[in-house]
Amino acid sequence: MQNILKNTDEGDRSAAPWMLLLILGGYVLAALFLFSFIAQGLIMLLFNYNTQESLSILTNPYESESAKLPLMIIQAVTSVGAFIVVPLFFIRVNLKTKFAPFFSFPEQALRPILMTVVILFCFMVANSVVIEWNQNVDMPDMFSWFENWAQSKEAQLEKLTEYLTSFSGIQEYLIALVVIALIPAVGEELLFRGLIQNLFGKAFNNPHVAIWLSAIVFGIFHFQFYGVVPRIFLGALFGYLYYWSGFLSLAMVGHFINNGLTLTLLYFSQIKFINYNPAEADTSPPLYVVGIFFLAGAVLLYLFRNLFPEKNA
Question: What's the pTM value of the predicted model, to 2 decimals?
């Protein structure tokens, strides 16, 4: 991980990470509101909506197919603002360092990129067991209020996801690939791994604590209780890809593959190119298949780590 606090005075280093985390959190929360407001104004201009029509896009978009593009624009503008513009501003203004190290690739990039792609594919198969378990968690009666809220939230998000990923043509698929796969891959990795994980690393002086804490924040941030555990594991995987390689760009590649492959499988199933639809898969593969992919992924992770001996000596 980059030494992002290299310009901080030695005497302030113990307090600086926590203060910087608070500042960063404030920036992100403010940006979520600000850029959501900007996005609302933008779609009012682009689609000639009045205020009520613009707000109805968020509250009840399912009545019209024409609401899909405005929703994508809102999501894109808000995500770019909160997860890309704000981290870049934070890097320049608060950390007083350059952007380039956060986006650079290894000199010999092909092998680690290909390994990252295969590792993510293996992980997606192995993680399906955790996904199935998390989706079927039963809460104790004393937490029934939380369970009801979580189930309601999950149903809303599932309905919205189904709406946004029901593609009427390749144009909608490509837009979704940018908005749902590419922008989050760059922005969320920049925020959660590039900044939060680094700051936790400085605060605790332990990279593994930093990786898992940032993964937990990543999982909780998505507000999907019935997917939080597999998302934490996913965040930890991205964290180790970054930590072992020193290149945040490889975590971005992995994040893009995770989101983009799911979207591509959905699109291929909708155009009848394949028979498998990930949205309808309610059970994981047989355990022996999961075990094979888990072992293959573990071996590949070991080989990936050894690609960077100077980083992991």
Answer: 0.92
Give CA separation, 45 vs 49, 51, 63, 162, 303, in Å.
7, 11, 21, 27, 51
CA distance 301 to 119: 7
Predicted local distance difference test score (pLDDT) of residue 143: 76
Q: How confident is the model at residue 278, as a pLDDT?
A: 78
CA–CA separation, 196 and 189 (whole Å): 9
Number of H helices, E strands in the chain: 13, 0
Q: What does the pLDDT read at residue 50?
A: 84
Q: What angle do CA 12, 13, 16 make, to 5 degrees?
A: 80
Tokens representing 198 are: 């680094």
Residue segments in the chain with a per-residue pLDDT below the cut of 50: 8-12
CA-CA distances (angstroms) from residue 298 to 80, 126, 180, 212? Answer: 33, 10, 27, 18
Tokens read off for 250: 């490889």
pLDDT at 137: 85
Which tokens is 208 given?
């593994």
Contact 73, 172 (CB under 8 A): no
Alpha-helix runs per DSSP H in 136-272: 144-164, 170-176, 183-188, 198-204, 207-221, 228-245, 248-270
